[in-house]
Write a structure and sequence with these properties.
Layout: H1 10-18, E1 49-55, E2 63-69, E3 74-75, E4 87-92, E5 95-100, E6 106-111, E7 117-122, E8 129-135, E9 138-143, E10 148-153, E11 161-166, E12 179-185, E13 188-193, E14 209-214, E15 217-223, E16 234-238, E17 241-247, E18 260-267, E19 270-279, H2 280-283, E20 286-293, E21 296-305, E22 312-319, E23 325-328, E24 336-341, E25 347-351, E26 355-359, E27 378-385
Antiparallel strand pairs: 1-2, 1-27, 2-3, 4-5, 5-6, 6-7, 8-9, 9-10, 10-11, 12-13, 13-14, 14-15, 16-17, 17-18, 18-19, 20-21, 21-22, 22-23, 24-25, 25-26
Length: 386
């Protein structure tokens, strides 16, 4: 299956693939959980890397495991007690940020080299944090049950939330904008919000929105063209300008029915939406994770959910410099749902409900013969490599 790029966004997207570096601005090619400082892309001179993954069955306490690449040595639960039963992961600079979500409500920070605990900061009872962006020691947190972006200070973790950037005007009906992702891009921090109902199963009130934050203050907002942004947004570049890529999904029961991978550009004249980069209908599902690399954009695409274990089925898709998304042929039993790119060029792919696989650079082959057991099932947006 090959999808077609939306014509109006082709030039902007190709600048991601053909510009200075495909890696997101303010991040290296660390995968779906990376907001690291710019660094080298895959390089034959870099021989070893570490993959870090959080995993859970959403009942037991989660685990945080490491995989040595390319040796494939696994350390199950390498750091105990840092992942909850509902974690996701970001990486920025030399730190790992574990976002412990519903019912746990904290950000746990590790040193990526030593895996030592830096801090654990509460986001407030019932806040349900979803994502974090780091600018120095200031952490900006997207939380579903908050009127805006929560601000934490890593230099004084005992203080908890030190400020809230009010975004309640994005959803005046209930004052809760339902922000699900946040990412540093250029000089700004960009919060992605869903604008959902609060009673029962959340339903979009209308298209999602992004809020542009600079120096701790809201400077502008941009409406998306699509409803229900989902998963973690990633910073990128469009014609040399900072940009953010936002996955959206209209119907989880029919992942290809609507939605797209949408882009917002942070230009000198202000932020602007440039619409869909790739339609979900063209991909056959929604983008569950993004991982920029120097020569292409990697995506995992969820096409359906298994009726027995409820885990996703999907594809590993690459967008090459020519602008053509192509599905990577994997084994029939492989169910990719998360992706990270190592500085060695290897790809780390979460195989839904089962473990983690390691592919050779550019997905030319697979090092693993079966999914590596990381202690519990991998989670979406719970993987990075550095």
């Amino acid at each position: 299956m090959t999808a077609r790029i939306a014509p109006l966004t082709l030039a902007a997207l190709l600048s991601i693939a053909c510009g200075d570096n495909l890696a997101p601005l303010g991040a290296d090619a660390g995968g779906s959980g990376s907001q690291a400082d710019a660094g080298p892309g895959p390089d034959a001179a870099i021989l070893e890397a570490t993959a870090f993954a959080v995993a859970t069955d959403f009942v037991a306490t989660g685990v945080a495991s490491t995989i040595a690449v390319p040796a494939l040595d696994v350390s199950v639960n390498a750091v105990e007690g840092v992942a909850s039963s509902d974690p996701v992961l970001r990486r920025a600079g030399d730190r790992l940020y574990i976002v412990n979500r519903l019912g746990h409500d904290n950000i746990t920070v590790l040193d990526s080299a030593t895996l030592e605990l830096v801090a654990q900061i509460s986001t407030g009872s019932g806040s349900n944090p979803q994502d974090v962006a780091a600018v120095g020691d200031t952490l900006y947190v997207a939380a579903l049950n908050s009127p805006g972006v929560l601000v934490l200070d890593l230099s004084r973790p005992e203080a908890g939330v030190v400020d809230t950037i009010d975004l309640s005007a994005l959803d005046p009906e209930d004052g809760l904008p339902n922000c699900n992702s946040i990412v540093a891009a250029g000089s700004a921090v960009v919060a992605v919000c869903g604008i959902l109902t609060q009673d029962g199963i959340p339903v979009p009130r209308g298209p999602g929105a992004v809020a542009i934050i600079e120096r701790g203050a809201l400077v502008e907002t941009v409406a998306l063209t699509q409803v229900n942004p989902f998963g973690l947004a990633q910073a990128a570049a469009a014609s040399g300008e900072p940009a953010v890529l936002v996955p959206t999904v209209q119907d989880f029961f029919n992942p290809a029915a609507g939605g797209c991978l949408e882009q917002v550009v942070l230009g000198k004249g202000g932020a602007r939406g440039t619409g869909c980069v790739v339609e979900n209908a063209e991909l056959g599902g929604f983008v569950s994770a993004l991982a920029p690399a120097p020569d292409r954009l990697w995506m995992t695409v969820t096409t359906s959910f298994d009726p027995k274990d409820f885990g996703p089925h999907g594809d590993l898709v690459s967008l090459d410099p020519g602008g053509s998304p192509e599905t990577v042929e994997l084994g029939d039993d492989v169910r990719p749902m998360d992706i990270a790119v190592c500085p060695t060029g290897h790809l780390i792919v979460s195989d839904a409900t089962r473990g983690v696989r390691v592919l050779t650079p550019a997905a030319a082959g697979e090092l693993t013969s079966a999914p590596l057991n990381i202690g519990l099932p991998p989670v979406a947006n719970g993987l990075t490599c550095y």
